[in-house]
Amino acid sequence: QVQLVESGGGLVQAGGSLRLVCAASGRPLSSYRMGWFRQAPGKGREVVATIYWSGTSTYYTDSVKGRFTISRDNAKNTVYLQMNNLKPEDTAVYYCNAAPPFSSQEYWGQGTQVTVSS
To answer: What's the pLDDT tens digit per position in 59-113?
Structure first.
């Protein structure tokens, strides 16, 4: 079993920065695809960024390209999301996701709230 715990959310003014942290436990996740998703009020959950085991393959949704950076530290079983130049439309609950290779199983954290004021 994999447990994911997010932290780092909060209230920030537009243009500000936050760094989200996802700490994983239960088993090594070095081979897992890790990702950050978000869900705004009244909207569905959407992918924000993903990173594969090597750390060199990443994906970003268009709205965050150039502002957000996903990274991982496999030795610490931790994934980060550095968010710069935040906008009010980034307001959402952010969830950490872990997906093992060759499996449909996925794991989710409990989420952390990010609120960006204008």
So the answer is: 999 999 999 999 999 899 999 999 999 999 999 999 999 998 888 899 999 999 9
Burial of residue 53 (CB within 10 Å: 0-12, 13-18, 19+) is middle
CA 66 from centre of chain: 15
List residues bridging with 83 in a β-sheet: 18, 68
Let me know: does 99 contact 106? Beta carbons within 8 Å: yes
Which residue shows structure tokens 């070095």?
A: 30
Overall residue count recorded for the chain in this entry: 118
- Region of 85 on the Ramachandran plot (φ > 0 left; ψ -120 to 50 alpha; else beta): left
Cross-strand bridge partners of residue 33: 99
Helices (H) and strands (E) in the chain, counts: 0, 11
CA distance 107 to 99: 7
